[in-house]
Amino acid sequence: MKNVFRIGGIALAVVAIVVGVVWAASGGEDEICRVVNIETNGDFLNVNEIQSGLRKQNLYPVGMPMRRISTQAIEDGMLANDLVRSARCYKRGDTIVELYVEQRMPILRVLSDGETYYVDADRKRMPVRSGVRTNVIWVRGHIGEQMAKEEIADFVVWLNDNSYWQPRIRSIEIREGKQAVLRQSEGEPVILLGRMTDYVQKLHKVRVFIEEMSAGRGAVPAYRELDARFDGQIVGRY
Description:
With about 240 residues, the protein is of the alpha/beta class. It has helices at about 1-25, 45-55, 70-80, 145-160, 200-215, and strands spanning about 35-40, 85-90, 95-105, 105-110, 115-120, 125, 135-140, 170-175, 180-185, 190-195, 225, 235.
C-alpha cells in the first residue's frame, strides 16, 4: 500500500507542475501596462491629443494587461486621424508600450471657391486645423484640386529647393485660364508667370533681368509687374 500512495503522490506533483506551467503561460500573472511613451513630429497633434484620441477608441494601453494590448489596433486607430501619415507601436519589456506618430506635412495651402485646405508632401488633400500656423505658400483663385496636387505642388517643391526664389515668393494667384501670378514681398513687383510650364526658364529670365537692371542703374525701377510670358524677353510695367 505504501508504494501505491508514493506513486499517487508523485503523479499529483507532476499534475500540479503542469497546471502551474499552463497557468503561467496563459497569463495567470499577466503584467499590466504601466507606461506608454508617445513621440510625434509636427504641430498639428500634441501628445495629450493623441492620448485623448486613443481613450475615445478604448485603445489607451495604460492599465490594460499587456497580452490584451493590440499594437496593430493602436496603429490602425491612429491612422484613422486625417492628420496622421503613419504610426508605429510595439511593446517593450513587461509593462511599457512605445508609440511613434508621424504627422502629415503640408507644402501649400489652397484658398479656392470658399474653401481652404492643405496639400501635403504626398500630394494628398489635408485638412486645415484652426490655431495651427504653417509657413507654407498660399495659393488663391479658382483652383481645381487636381491642379493643386499636380502642377502647383510640382512648382512649390521646386521653389522650396531654390535658394534664390524661395525667400522671395510669398503667395501664388491663379487667374482665369490657369494663369499664375507670383507675389513677392511687399513693395516688390508681381511676376506674371502664365501657365505653370517652363517656370525654371521663365524665372531664370526674371532673375537675369533684375540683376542686370540692378548692376546697370544701381536699383531696379519701381515696376508694378514683370511679365515673363513672352519668349526671350521680360516686359516691365509701371
